[in-house]
Structure formats: structure tokens, C-alpha cells
Amino acid sequence: MKSGDRISVASIADVTGQYVEIKGAATRTGKFAWVPGMRVSSIIRNLDADLLDFGDTNYAAIVRTNPETQRISVVNLELQKAVTEPGSSEDLMLQEKDQLLFFTDVGKVKLTLNGDEQNPDVASEEKKELEKMRERAERYTREALFEPVLKRLKAQAGPYSPQQTMRISGPVRYPGEYPLPTTGTVKNAIFVAGGLTDSASMYSAELARRYTDDNGVEQTEIIQVDLADAMLGKDNVRLQSRDRLLIKSVPSFGTNRTVTLEGEVRYPGQYTFRDGETLREVLERAGGLTDNAFPRGAVFTREKLRQLEAQRLREAEERLQGDLLGVQLEGDSFGGQNAQRVDEVKGLLEDVQSSRPVGRMVIDLPQVLAEASYQPIRLQDGDTLNVPTIPQSVSVFGEVQFPTSHLHSEGLTVDDYLERSGGATRQADEDRVYVVKADGSVMLPEKSAWFGSRRQQLQPGDTIIVPIDVDRLNQLELWSNVSQIVYQMALGAAAVGNL
Fold first, then answer.
1. Which residue, among 492, 480, 440, has the nearest Cα to 462 in the 3D structure?
2. Full domain range(s) for residue 193
3. The predicted structure's pLDDT at residue 13
4. Sign of CA dihedral 409, 413, 416, 417
5. For the purposes of burial, counting CB atoms within 10 Å of the CB of 421, is it exposed (0-12), middle (13-18) or buried (19 or more)?
């Protein structure tokens, strides 16, 4: 060679059609020379060295072009066996212009990213590399690499050459649409989709097949497949064009439903319960209640009710914020008292924002424990039962001078406890005072026959609520909403106070 010489090395594709092409999660992609007798192991000799860190070492695909018709087909490859057992039946012979597709193992990617992203010691440069790794891995998924292959398979389909695709769904690692396996077996289709997950039911799978009847109308046929036999290669079902294979899940697989027992329970803790099991049955498993338990004041909460209360509080907050803006825009149109109304609405809004949903459901725990025939309380996941100790106090909340709790004394009435809290404020509605009993039920002293009057004596654990007087502020629709909010907040506060 001399100075100034230029060397041009042509690619294999420019010189001859004798090549194979590697795509996807391989360390070296591109076109490589093909010679007769070449096998998969001739080009992929070591899985660790020839595949990327996140490459799938179990499965690869060969996209093969028929030299006469230029139609493609897909041959599935058990990559692990092909490389570790050179010359075996799994180490397939390669043909001219074969494309080898190597895919991402999503499980490896998640394991690597989750471990490093949660590590606070990972440097910013390392995080950038991890992000690049994520982007590369997404380019080599089954969905990404098979997309152009599926388009071509659909484009080359015709009346006498059915579309060579199928779809698989359910508990497989990579559900989706795939080229129809050349073997046509259910086992091979599941292998292409990454295999079954542990929630798959081995009893049966369902195959939906489209066919044209004698009248030329397309119909659907449902075929039941014994999945256990199919995975052993004993079934005689062969997949056809556009088949849809549904792998069924084990009913309630992985469902871990728990109830939490707290407080004066013999053996408190988080208990797993069976489908249909009742609160009474779980309490028996927990040894019942202690001698210091106050079952009448037990607080039973349910997660679904808590979520519903949270939603209502958010909606109420939004309404209050909108109405507050309306009050502020009114100026002093109500005889100069608007500033006071604004302050009161702001106070209520702050109370709503600071309140937390409880999700309490009123139950009669003494009856639940005493009578087996009493209406059973079927448990739901996330339920909680808190049994307090025997209380000694009566609480007073709401529009009183000094909201607090008082030591219960025999003979004292609602009015007596209100007097001990300094009496009602100017904003109080003394005609609508109500009592939240220890079990969460509500009684109205002025209207309930249970009370007769406000001279009715109270019991330990009861809570007196003095609501705000909304009638004196009835110029705005806002206050009807506020009254409901205050009621819900007070009820929740009473429940929390008795925990």
C-alpha cells in the first residue's frame, strides 16, 4: 500500500445474496456470510458473549424467505438448546437470507432497573446508562421486532393462502399477536409467548377459531383444549390462521384477603380469611375478646367505605371552594355581615381539608358474639376491627365553648355535659343537638323517642355533637351542603375519638 491509496470493502449484500442477518438483542447485529451447512451455533457460540445483558436466552425466531415465491415464514428456535447442543435437532440449519431475531427478556430488564433505580448511591451517569438500556430493551421486545413481520404476513395473505398469524392472551409472559408456529402446536405457541405464568390454569384453555360456513358466512367455533396434555405434546389440536388462544387463570389466584383485629382481642393481628368467612368466625380464631374489652364501642371500618367517604370529601371541598369564591364576590350585600360569613366558610373548608375518612360501618358487636343466628358480617379485604377498653368518658364536639371529653358520671344528662363544656356558641343550632353512641349509631335528643328529652342520661363512650346553625345563613345554597359535611366530619371524629 502507498500513501493516498483508498480501500473500499463492499458489504456482503452488495456482492452476493449469500448472507444471514442478525437483528435485536445481540452484541453484533448486521449481515454475515452464509455458507451451506451453517447452523445457528455457527453464528451464536456463547449466549453470554453474543447476546446483550437483557437478551432472552430461551427463545429466538428465524424469519425465512422462500427464494421462489419471496413469501416469508417464521421458524421458532429453542435458543438455549441450539447453542448448548451443537449439531442437535434444535440447532437448526440456516438458509440463505435468513433473519435471526433476538428478543428482550423483560424480566431481566425490570430486575436490573428496579435494583439500580432504587439505589440512592447510583451516580447520574449510571442512571443515564440505565435509561439508554431501557430504550434499547424496548426496541427489541417481541412486539417491536415482530411488528414488520406481522405486517408482511398479513400483506401476503390471500384467498388460497390464509394469514399466518394467531393471538394468545391470558397468563403468559408476553401475550399478544404472533406469527403462526410452523409446528402448529399449542405448546409451541405458548413457548413463543414466553411460557405460562404461575397463575395459569392447567385444566383447560379456549381456542376461538374463525371459519367460513357453507353459505360463505364467517362464523366462530370455540374449541376446549386440555392445557396439561397440550404442554406434554399429547393433544391433537393444530393452530390455524387467525386463531385466538385464551389461557385461563386459576380463580382467585394470589388473592390474599386479610382483616386486622386490634385492641382488646385475645390474639390481635392481621388474619387471612376464607371466601365467605364472617367476623364472628375470625374472632373465634383470634381467641375472642379480653376481660377489658368494650364490645359496644367497637369500631369496624371497611376500605371501600373509606374510599367512598374520601371521594365525597373531595367533592364537598370542591363545592365549598367554589361557593366561597361566590361569597367573596358578593361583597357586603348582606348588611355588612359578609366578612363574618367568609370567615365561617373558610373555617369549615379547613375542617373538611384536615379531616380524614374513616370508613366506619356501625355494627352491634355484642349481638354478633352472643347470637350465632344474628345477621353475619361477611368480611372484605382490608376490613379492620378495633375493640377499645371500657371507657370512662363522654365527649362533646362542635359549636361549644370548650370541646373536650368529660369523666362519665352517673345521672348527668346531655344538658349537663353541654354546660360543663361552657355551653353553646352563637353559631350553634341547639335544636339539632345529637348524640353519637359508642357503637356509632346516632340519636337525636329533641326528636327521638329513645331520648324522650335532653334529660336522658348518657353512657360511657357516648359523644355529643352540637352542629352549626345553618338556618340563620340560609341566603346561600352553600349551607345545605355545609350541614351535611359537618355531620359527616363529626361522625368520623367521634369514631376516631373512641379508638
1. 440
2. 160-254
3. 57
4. positive
5. buried
Residue ranges of the chain with per-residue pLDDT less than 70 = 12-16, 114-123, 320, 323-345, 347-349, 351-352, 445-457, 470-499
Q: What are phi and psi of 117, to 5 degrees?
A: -70, -30
> Exposure of 493 by Cβ count < 10 A (0-12 exposed, 13-18 middle, 19+ buried)?
buried
Question: To 5 degrees, how large is the angle CA 360–CA 364–CA 369?
Answer: 120
Q: What is the identity of the amino acid at 375?
A: Q
Residue 305 inside a domain? The answer is no
**Grid cell at residue 141:** 421486545
Q: Per this entry, what is the length of the chain? A: 499
Q: Which amino acid is at 35?
A: V
Nearest-angstrom CA–CA distance, 60 and 194:
11
Same-domain status, 96 and 182 = no
End-to-end CA distance of the chain: 92
CA-to-CA distance for 312 and 404, rounded, in angstroms? 27
Last residue of a domain, one of 117, 141, 156: 156
Residues 173, 115 share a domain: no
pLDDT in tens, 418-453: 889 998 888 788 888 888 888 888 777 655 444 445
Res 222: pLDDT: 95
- Best CA proximity match to 440, nearest among 310, 299, 307: 299
Q: What is the 3-state secondary structure (H, E, C) of the chain?
A: CCCCCCCCCCCHHHHCCCEEEEEECECCCEEEECCCCCEHHHHCCCHHHHECCCEEEEEEEEEEECCCCCCEEEEEEEHHHHHHCCCCCCCCECCCCCEEEEEECHHHHHHHHHHHHCCCCCCHHHHHHHHHHHHHHHHCCHHHHHHHHHHHHHHCCECCECCCEEEEECCECCCEEEECCCCCCHHHHHHHCCCECCCEEEEEEEEEEEEECCCCCEEEEEEEECHHHHHCCCCCCCCCCCCEEEEEECCCCCCCCEEEEEECECCCEEEECCCCCEHHHHHHHCCCECCCECHHHCEEECHHHHHHHHHHHHHHHHHHHHHHHHHHHHCCCCCCCHHHHHHHHHHHHHHHHHCCCCCEECCCHHHHHHCCCCCCCECCCCEEEEECECCCEEEEEECECCCEEEECCCCCEHHHHHHHCCCECCCECHHHCEEECCCCCEECCCCCCCCCCCCCECCCCCEEEECECCHHHCCCCHHHHHHHHHHHHHHHHHHHHCC
Domain boundary among 204, 220, 254: 254
Is the separation of the CB atoms in 448 and 483 below 8 Å?
no
CA dihedral 307, 309, 312, 318 (to 10 degrees): -90
pLDDT at 449: 45
Residue 114 lies in a domain: yes
Q: How many domains does the chain have?
A: 2
